[in-house]
């Protein structure tokens, strides 16, 4: 009968380990499907970056923005803002194809199979309310969010994001509204690009100068 107590102890250890493993797997499953831009968290243990690095800029289109995308998808605006993020300014940055859906680790891995660049800059634009045609006094908020994905390290660098707003009287023509919205969009893109540049610089490897 002396073997019964050790047996129960082993069973308790096995059950505790199994429960812990189950929770770990469930948490990993949840993490793999969570939207990383909404989470806004930078991964730990990111290695310092040796520049120059190649950069690919890709837009994540949100629901409801499809109708506006044609107006805001101006390559010149992207060139003036997000494509100037590369700190070394040696390897030219490139734009990628826009896509919809949540930004998960699985999706980021898929992007690395499409693009060969070292850093993938994924950005998102959200307008609230959707400024399809403003007929009354209304304030439109433009939120620009994003992240930097280090392809080789498989690490995420989060960006704080930018929030801009513009008040419309509702009496402007559709053309005037579009021009003001484009300007609002450009200001948000510029702010996001400055954030991305700052984050990349903060992870830049610097040689230590000898004190002797």
Task: Briefly characterize the structure.
The chain has 212 residues and is an alpha/beta fold. The chain has helices at residues 4-33, 36-39, 66-72, 75-80, 105-114, 174-202, and strands at 55-61, 94-95, 99-100, 119-128, 138-150, 155-158, 162-168. It folds into 2 domains: 1-33; 36-202, Rossmann fold.
Q: What is the secondary structure topology, with strand pairs?
A:
Layout: H1 4-33, H2 36-39, E1 55-61, H3 66-72, H4 75-80, E2 94-95, E3 99-100, H5 105-114, E4 119-128, E5 138-150, E6 155-158, E7 162-168, H6 174-202
Parallel strand pairs: 1-2, 1-3, 1-4
Antiparallel strand pairs: 4-5, 5-6, 5-7
Model description:
- There is one protein chain.
- With 212 residues, this protein is α/β, with parallel strands linked by helices.
- The chain folds into two domains: 1-33; 36-202, Rossmann fold, CATH 3.40.50.
- It contains six helices and seven strands; from the N terminus they run H-H-E-H-H-E-E-H-E-E-E-E-H.
- Strands 1, 2, 3, 4, 5, 6 and 7 form a seven-stranded mixed β-sheet that branches.
- The longest helix is centred in the N-terminal third of the chain and has 30 residues, at 4-33.
- The protein is globular, with a radius of gyration of 23 Å.
